[in-house]
Amino acid sequence: MAMIHGECPKCGKRVLHVNIENVVGVADGSSNARCLSYSCIHCHVVLGVQVDHRAKPRSRAKPAATAS
Ligand SMILES: [Zn+2]
User: Fold this and answer.
1) For residue 40, how far is its CA from the centre of ligand 1 (angstroms)?
2) Cβ pair 33, 54 in contact under 8 A
3) In whole angstroms, what separates CA 48 from the centre of its chain?
4) Which superkingdom is the protein from (predicted)?
5) How far is CA 55 from the centre of its chain?
6) CA of 3 to the centre of ligand 1 (A)
7) 3-state class percentages of the chain: helix first, strand second, coil last, to nearest 5
8) What phi, psi does 22 have (nearest 5°)?
9) What is the pTM of this model?
């Protein structure tokens, strides 16, 4: 497994670290999803955004199978 790091598409530096910021995803005009934004620490261009699955407002769909 080679340790190859990607390069920032804007400043061309290797992306060894990213800034992780909490952003809000807007769907149908209402903000209802917490997301994480990853940005280059050198030039702050956003490299990617994803939904923060840890902080979902309503995810109580647990299959309740851990009872003893
Ligand atoms: Zn950059």
Assistant:
1) 5
2) no
3) 7
4) Bacteria
5) 11
6) 19
7) 5, 45, 55
8) -85, 125
9) 0.66
